[in-house]
């Protein structure tokens, strides 16, 4: 009996350890662009370039901005068949803070549209909190859902490589859409990352999220134009980014207000509408907005600033001058 018991134990172990030694396989659930997706064709405009450059120069005058501490991209959407744009340092890679959440929002809707992710009440709550109140915890959850990864302890190299490949799923999606010079694979935190999240940064703050204002403005434009999702999903995204400019009591009271909003509020533009995904840290202040006015203006403006958080008037100053310039 004892020999039989030992033999059974050996056979039981043999069924476990060979499995553990096998290569780990991960069923790929890639995020792929829709078959009918067409990249927005945006032409540089000789008319818009001096307008944007002049707006930026005027806004930062006397504020000791160094080269590279501000970037901006403007896209005029009044003629959907002929989009025109201008940029100042538009290809500069800048840490985007919470602006990256707009990229995760689009990727998540792509997966849901393909039936690869199912919307649940909890997921719906996470999506809303990620955009409306710009919750970092909600964003961590959404990125886990998108990439089938989770935070935790440091990993052995082979396991970590599989984990890192999955975490880069969102990057591969945007590469397939023709986006370049960006990195969108990190969670956002109120304090700091630990464990495998730091391992993913090579323990040296490497591999951080990076966006350009050109890429950010393009994505906002493609959301507005309905290129990244169905009309129903586009509306859901836009509804989350809609910001309140005026209330019966006065100014808007959004939990994650748009830094550009004061430009419209100060001008008393009660008929205007603004959609925004902003971001900020102790060192940076960014905003990506889409604005419509009763006069027929329709434009996207992305402005990133670094090391000038106290100069909160810069983004609304640029926005105001763009509005005035486009009216002419």
Strand order of the largest sheet: 1-3-2-9-8-7-4
Give the biggest sheet. Answer: 7 strands, mixed
Supply the helix-strand structural class.
alpha+beta
Count of runs of 4 or more consecutive helical residues = 12
Shape descriptor reads globular
CATH topology of the largest domain: Beta-Lactamase
Unreliable stretches (pLDDT < 50, length at least 5) are: 5-26
Name the beta content range: 5-15%
Q: Roughly how many Å apart are the termini? A: 96 Å
Residue-averaged pLDDT: 91
The level-1 CATH class of the largest domain: Alpha Beta
Elements, N to C (H/E): HEHEEHHHHHHHHEEEHEEEH
Key phrases:
alpha+beta, 328 residues, Beta-Lactamase, 2 domains, two-stranded antiparallel sheet, single chain
Descriptive account of the structure:
With 328 residues, this protein is an alpha+beta fold. It folds into two domains: 172 residues, Beta-Lactamase (2-Layer Sandwich), CATH 3.30.450; 114 residues, no CATH class. 42% of the residues lie in helices and 15% in strands. The N and C termini lie far apart (96 Å).
List the helices and strands and how they pair.
Elements: H1 2-21, E1 42-44, H2 48-60, E2 70-76, E3 83-88, H3 100-113, H4 121-132, H5 136-147, H6 157-167, H7 169-176, H8 196-200, H9 213-224, H10 231-241, E4 242-243, E5 246-247, E6 250-251, H11 261-266, E7 273-280, E8 284-292, E9 298-306, H12 314-327
Parallel strand pairs: 1-3
Antiparallel strand pairs: 2-3, 2-9, 4-7, 5-6, 7-8, 8-9
Helix pairs in contact: 2-12, 3-5, 4-5
